[in-house]
């Protein structure tokens, strides 16, 4: 077999029993476009990814205007939580559907749902309605995120996949920089409803390009009637929704050990057990058992779950640190974070030169080892320090994580054929999203505990940050005391993120096979 990942990642005997003949034949018929015809499809993928990437950054800047118009300050966080829940719990379902019916109908349905949700959001008459319509957006966003990544792997052979993945990473980097500026301009000089209406022309172009230019192979047996595991899909949706709701709202809307938290976690556990029973009996399960039985896929799932966990430190807590401890404004604080999104795609684009020599696993080990050291170095920064110091660490962190994430995604997608790639990609993204939700809950609890111990009273990071935003209400001594408390809280969060990097490293060392069982590219 002519594996194209270099000699270091040829087929591994430990996983070869999991690869069926049908998968290999599926890989041989997966060419979705000729090299010359890829351009319009790639453009559609980048536009589709831009819809999902811009969503969070562009909406967050308009929250004050939205709340001022619609009210509902006590529940506005669900503008983001509701969207995140819908994206996360639908990823496995869309992954299976794309393997069953093809990528094109799933992607088209996702774009249409996202645009419908955007149009409804623009016409929302209350905060409750806006939250509900954001969930509709999220139902489309789940299809966008998973299916775009899968089609990218379908379009390109292994040697060329870093190119398309780097382009998609660039979309996320550009969104991190441009999103807040676009959202701020629209909210300030137009109306907050335009942050949703702007999705319509972008999505319409993506929809036209997909419908016109994306070509897919027909199923091996067109006469076979696809079977959809609807009970499994509903069980996964219910279990995921309850678990993520408990993680997102625990410690915020209610205490962790309160009746609502215990009820949500308990019911979620019951539904998880029910899901396992349903999936074992289903003819075509939404989450097949092989996703966790194959060492390569299970290891990548766990490693990228740890990535979602550790990413909470820079994306959620660094802006607060930059504003509360360093005294920067929102734009400058955003720049401290955005340098990470600039080095990440560059590192990812160059990672193929590393994994073609040493293999996917070893390249990811190098990346996550560097990331762990960089995260652990954050508490060593001087107080209060200079803005360039955390910015330099984030620049290095982006480079390290580019070496970690992309080889794992490209590698795991290359171990399966067309008929399993959607499910595999969705499982990886699902684990990363769940890790992110767990990280937000865990690190939020850590930060608030450190603050309480430093301040000698109950409090949370948001309230302290708001107090520091109005320095005239504090004495110099009180302000310095609060800043030091925030500095200590964020230091502990970064140590927790370094621990998550250590867990990912252990998974790669002890769970992942030394060589990924890469399938041959079609001739």
Describe this structure in words.
This protein is globular. The protein has 3 domains: 181 residues, Up-down Bundle (Growth Hormone, Chain: A), CATH 1.20.1250.20; 55 residues, no CATH class; 235 residues, MFS general substrate transporter like domains (Growth Hormone, Chain: A). Helix content is 74%, strand content 0%. The protein is mainly α. Helix 10 packs antiparallel against helix 11, helix 13 runs parallel beside helix 18 and helix 16 packs antiparallel against helix 20. The relative contact order is 0.15. The protein contains 20 helices and no strands. The termini are close together.
Helix/strand layout:
Blueprint: H1 21-27, H2 38-60, H3 63-70, H4 78-101, H5 103-122, H6 127-155, H7 161-189, H8 194-197, H9 199-213, H10 230-249, H11 259-281, H12 290-293, H13 295-324, H14 330-350, H15 352-358, H16 360-377, H17 388-413, H18 418-455, H19 461-468, H20 476-510
Can you give me a brief rundown of this structure?
This protein has helices at 21-27, 38-60, 63-70, 78-101, 103-122, 127-155, 161-189, 194-197, 199-213, 230-249, 259-281, 290-293, 295-324, 330-350, 352-358, 360-377, 388-413, 418-455, 461-468, 476-510.
Q: What's the β-strand tally?
A: 0
Tally of distinct domains: 3
Can you identify the CATH superfamily of the largest domain?
MFS general substrate transporter like domains
Tell me, briefly, the overall form.
Answer: globular
Largest sheet: none
Strand content: under 5%
- Please work out how many helical segments DSSP would assign: 20
Poorly predicted runs are: 1-32
**Proportion of helical residues:** over 70%
Work out the radius of gyration: 23 Å
CATH topology of the largest domain: Growth Hormone, Chain: A
N-to-C SSE string, H for helix and E for strand: HHHHHHHHHHHHHHHHHHHH
CATH class of the largest domain: Mainly Alpha
The average pLDDT is 82
**Ends distance:** 11 Å
CATH architectural designation of the largest domain: Up-down Bundle
Helical/strand content category: mainly alpha
């Amino acid at each position: 077999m002519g594996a194209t990942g270099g000699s270091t990642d040829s087929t591994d005997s430990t996983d070869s029993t999991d690869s069926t003949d049908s998968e290999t034949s599926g890989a041989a018929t997966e060419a979705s476009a000729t090299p010359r015809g890829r351009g319009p499809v790639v453009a559609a993928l980048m536009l589709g990814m831009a819809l999902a990437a811009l969503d969070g950054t562009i909406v967050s800047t308009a929250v004050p205007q939205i709340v001022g118009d619609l009210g509902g300050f006590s529940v506005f966080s669900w503008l983001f939580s509701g969207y995140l829940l819908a994206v996360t719990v639908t990823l496995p379902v869309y992954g299976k559907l794309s393997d069953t019916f093809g990528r094109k109908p799933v992607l088209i349905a996702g774009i249409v749902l996202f645009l419908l949700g955007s149009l409804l959001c623009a016409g929302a008459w209350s905060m409750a309605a806006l939250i509900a319509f954001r969930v509709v957006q999220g139902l489309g966003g789940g299809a966008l995120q998973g299916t775009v990544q899968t089609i990218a792997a379908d379009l390109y052979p292994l040697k060329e996949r870093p190119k398309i993945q780097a382009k998609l990473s660039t979309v996320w980097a550009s969104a991190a920089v441009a999103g807040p500026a676009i959202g701020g301009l629209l909210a300030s000089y137009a109306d907050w409803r335009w942050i949703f209406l702007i999705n319509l022309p972008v999505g319409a172009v993506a929809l036209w390009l997909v419908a016109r230019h994306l070509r897919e192979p027909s199923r091996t047996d067109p006469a076979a009637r696809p079977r959809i595991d609807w009970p499994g899909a509903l069980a996964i949706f219910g279990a995921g929704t309850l678990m993520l709701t408990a993680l997102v709202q625990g410690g915020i809307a209610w205490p962790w050990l309160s009746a609502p938290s215990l009820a949500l976690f308990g019911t979620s556990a019951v539904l998880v057990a029910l899901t396992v029973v349903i999936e074992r009996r289903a003819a075509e399960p939404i989450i097949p058992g092989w996703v966790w039985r194959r060492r390569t896929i299970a290891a990548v799932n766990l490693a990228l779950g740890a990535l979602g966990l550790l990413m909470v430190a820079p994306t959620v807590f660094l802006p607060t640190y930059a504003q509360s401890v360093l005294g920067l404004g929102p734009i400058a604080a955003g720049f401290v974070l955005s340098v990470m999104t600039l080095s990440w795609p560059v590192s990812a684009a160059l990672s193929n030169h590393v994994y073609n020599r040493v293999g996917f696993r070893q390249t990811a080990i190098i990346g996550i080892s560097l990331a762990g050291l960089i995260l652990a170095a954050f508490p060593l920064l001087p107080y209060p320090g200079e803005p360039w110091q955390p910015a330099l660490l984030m620049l290095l962190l982006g480079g390290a994580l580019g070496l970690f994430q992309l080889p794992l995604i490209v590698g795991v997608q290359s171990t399966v054929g067309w008929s399993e790639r959607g499910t595999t990609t969705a499982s990886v993204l699902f684990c990363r999203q769940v890790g992110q939700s767990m990280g937000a809950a865990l690190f939020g609890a850590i930060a608030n505990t450190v603050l309480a111990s430093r301040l000698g009273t109950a409090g949370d990071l948001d309230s302290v940050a708001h107090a520091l935003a109005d320095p005239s209400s504090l004495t110099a001594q009180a302000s310095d005391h609060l800043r030091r408390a925030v500095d200590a809280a964020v230091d502990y969060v970064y140590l927790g993120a370094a621990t998550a990097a250590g867990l990912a490293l252990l998974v790669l060392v002890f769970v992942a096979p030394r060589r990924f069982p890469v399938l041959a590219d079609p001739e």
